[in-house]
Design brief:
Layout lengths: L13 H6 L3 E8 L4 H13 L2 E7 L8 H7 L2 H4 L2 E4 L2 H10 L2 E6 L6 E2 L10 E7 L7 H4 L4 E4 L11 H16 L1
Parallel strand pairs: 1-2, 1-6, 2-3, 4-6, 4-7, 5-7
Length: about 180
């Protein structure tokens, strides 16, 4: 096997990305503090043609050199909006017909490996702060909680890793 050169990957341009049919998913970041995590979420969202990223609360916005370090330009391809209050963002998405899913360990969570999505629906996933997770006030507004099964000694994943796992599952089911 030979590793492909970057010129052989046939990636689309930013303009082509903007025009491409998107995965019916919005990623909401609830007070994510790490600029590297934000950049990683943009890069993963670009990889899987995510509709948009909603940056809330203390979550930083592009343009930002630290976000760019991990996003590598995906902050320019993926649509994004800023909302000062995550609850307002969730309410606005609900009003637009989105099913809202917090990615959180909660009572009656749906395990990610048991999740069944409807391809005709629009979804938003809310990922929380690196220390506090998704705030209870936000969880209360969500239609469900999705939990990533974990079998080791740690109780959580890094937010950008969790985003990658969840975005991949939504992409597989919705595309």
């Amino acid at each position: 096997m030979r590793v492909k050169k970057i010129t052989e990957l046939n990636r689309i341009s930013i303009d082509e990305f903007k025009d491409a049919e998107k995965t019916r998913l919005v990623v909401v970041l609830d007070n994510v503090r790490s600029l590297n995590n934000i950049g990683s979420v943009f890069r993963t969202s670009d990889a899987f043609l995510i509709e948009a990223v909603c940056l809330c609360g203390i979550t930083a916005c592009p343009p930002n050199a630290e976000i760019h370090k991990t996003a590598l330009g995906a902050e320019n391809s993926v649509d994004w909006i800023y909302c000062g209050d995550t609850e307002d963002a969730v309410r606005a998405l609900k009003n637009k017909g989105f099913t809202i899913c917090a990615i959180e360990q909660a009572e009656r969570s749906i395990m990610l490996d048991e999740l069944v999505l409807d391809k005709t629906e629009k979804y938003a996933v809310v990922l929380g702060n690196e220390v506090k997770g998704v705030r209870q006030e936000v969880v209360d507004l969500c239609d469900c909680c999705i939990e990533i099964p974990q079998y080791g000694t740690k109780h959580s994943l890094n937010v950008s890793v969790a985003a990658g796992v969840v975005i991949w599952e939504f992409f597989k089911q919705l595309r």
